[in-house]
Design goal:
By secondary structure, the chain is an alpha/beta fold. Helix content is 22%, strand content 24%. The strands form two sheets. A six-stranded mixed beta sheet has the order 1-12-2-3-4-5, with helices on one face. Helix 5 links the parallel strand 7 and strand 8. This is Metallophosphoesterase.
Length: 268
């Protein structure tokens, strides 16, 4: 009986070990609907795609980045937001990854912030050359004066100084405001009375979890609370993506990579 039990444990270990190398290729398209009376009529039904934590490099090839770009474009997003960590601290990888990301297509634009692994100056330069609007500590109005939303982002809170004030300039209580932060730990600092929707990444959903129930290696001071999915604080909503790439090892376990698709729905 003991030998059979040991054999079963060994077989399961081999199976789950092998699966952890397969899961990084099982990219989910996670669909979320955000409802608000502040969404202008012209933005009702618009689709926002959020990509984050690509970590192009030894664990994630340029061919896979190109595949993510194609998969994203096939979703026909109206807007694309990027959450940082395009590389893993390798300056030489910045140019190639943004060459791929330059092919992202969205009629309302592509906007991004940097993560803690992105070399700042070279990344901002490459992002701008790729036709992507850098929104670190800055914001942009999308639409016209009669029907517009505010989209902004903040710098990474551990490697830079985030500042949401430039994003909140000239907004009114009626405006719908979106903020992108690499780390979800910034969420408690977000102005809840003025920001309606926050996008974050960084956690990788834990990357390696105990069957999705617990992440022993979570990269958040709030631990499991800011792991993945939709979380609320007051009237504000944050969406945390598992991201695309990996660190430490080319594995994921019950924390599949994600392309997040948000549909805006106007409440009347």
């Amino acid at each position: 009986m003991l030998k059979k039990l040991i054999l079963i444990i060994v077989i399961l270990g081999i199976f789950f070990g092998a699966y952890s190398f397969v899961e990084p290729y099982l990219i989910q398209t996670k669909e979320i609907t955000i409802e608000s009376s502040q969404i202008p009529p012209e933005f009702d039904g618009k689709h926002i795609v959020f990509l984050t934590d690509i970590h192009y490099g030894s664990f994630f090839s340029k061919e896979r980045v190109d595949s993510i770009v194609n998969q994203t474009n096939e979703l026909k997003p109206d807007m694309i937001l990027l959450g940082g960590d395009y590389v893993t601290s390798d300056s030489s990888a910045v140019g190639p990854v943004f060459l791929s990301l330059s092919k992202l297509k969205a009629p309302l634009g592509v906007y991004g912030v940097l993560g803690n692994n992105d070399p700042k100056n070279v990344s901002i330069h490459a992002m701008q050359n790729a036709g992507i609007t850098y929104i670190g500590n800055n914001g942009a109005w999308i639409g016209t004066n009669s029907s517009r939303i505010r989209v902004g982002g903040v710098a990474d809170m551990d490697t830079d100084v985030p500042n949401q004030l430039p994003i909140l300039q000239d907004i009114t209580p009626e405006d719908f405001v979106i903020l992108v932060t690499h780390k979800p730990d910034y969420f408690p600092k977000v102005s809840k009375s003025r920001v309606d929707l926050v996008f974050a990444g960084h956690t990788h959903g834990g990357q390696i979890t105990l069957f999705g129930l617990y992440a022993p290696f979570i990269k958040s001071q709030y631990e499991q609370k800011h792991l993945s999915g939709v979380t609320k604080l007051g009237n504000d909503t944050m969406i945390i993506s598992n991201g695309i790439g990996m660190v430490w090892a080319p594995v994921r376990f019950f924390a599949p990579p994600q392309i997040v698709v948000v549909t805006l729905k106007r409440m009347t």
